[in-house]
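call fold(seq) -> tokens
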Amino acid sequence: MILFKKIKYYLFVKARILKYKLLSDKKPIGSKPRLISPVLFSGEGEIVLGTNVQFGYAQSAHYYSHYSYVEARTKASKIKIGNNVVINNNCNIVSMTQIEIQDNCTIGINFSIIDSDFHHLEPHKRNDINPPSKPVKIGKNVFIGNDVTILKGVIIGNNAVIGNGSIVSSSVAENTVVVGNPARAIKTL
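ret:
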């Protein structure tokens, strides 16, 4: 049984982690992340990782089938992930300006965070360059549930909790629980 588990790990996990390392065109700076599942790092900007950053979780959905995507799209883009951050399987972090996730955050599966619309909303400008973009910041000790999307310009205060399935389009005060689409405060901690 132990031999079977090792074979399964090397064939279905370790090989995929190596594959996405080879496909990545960007190497993060800072500490080396703990890769439990594959991550593709991409872009022209800067990706900075603190100590003890973990991508993926074996006892969770999408462990064998998905990968995470982290892109600092332009030369001016910056993604900074603090210390002791755990990001579950299948995350999507894409920055045109700046995204910051501070220390001690825990993030669920199917997480998405973007700091731009990546196109203009007006029909006559949709193919223009330089779409609207605003930095995103997630404070310290934030807990984010599964299937959460955080949109441009959002600041999430320290110790906040974002409930499953939420779409966060406006800032969240510290020590606040928010849920829904759009996310609304339901409780103060």
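Residues 50 and 83 are 4 Å apart (CA to CA).
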